[in-house]
């Protein structure tokens, strides 16, 4: 399950990076809580995103970074499929039901 996101964003010079990140985090968490109301119980304090963030400049690498982000989705999906395990009891050959938490 993904626990972070990658974004390639162009920010006009008149905006501070912290303003844009704050806006994106704030607006997206409101939209997520609106669409998935059950998450309000898990994140009762309404802090969906962590406090920090990482920012870097792109320069001439824009195409390479964009390709990395696009391929990351594919790689994450492939990894998720590889991590799916069917649990079989070695003695009975029966599927083992996992306990729900």
UniProtKB/TrEMBL annotation:
Pfam families: Y1_Tnp (PF01797)
Stored InterPro entries: Transposase_17, Transposase_17_sf
Entry's Gene Ontology BP terms: DNA transposition
SMART domains: Y1_Tnp
Gene Ontology molecular-function annotations: DNA binding; transposase activity
UniProt name for this protein: Transposase IS200-like domain-containing protein
Coiled coil: none
Domain Transposase IS200-like: 1-72
């Amino acid at each position: 399950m993904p626990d972070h996101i990658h974004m390639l964003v162009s920010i006009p010079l008149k905006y501070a990076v912290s303003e844009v990140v704050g806006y994106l985090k704030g607006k997206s968490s409101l939209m997520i809580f609106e669409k998935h109301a059950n998450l309000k119980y898990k994140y009762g304090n309404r802090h969906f995103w962590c406090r920090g963030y990482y920012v870097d400049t792109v320069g001439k690498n824009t195409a390479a970074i964009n390709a990395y982000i696009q391929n990351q989705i594919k790689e994450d999906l492939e990894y998720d499929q590889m991590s799916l395990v069917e649990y079989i009891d070695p003695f009975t050959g029966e599927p083992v039901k996992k306990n729900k938490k």
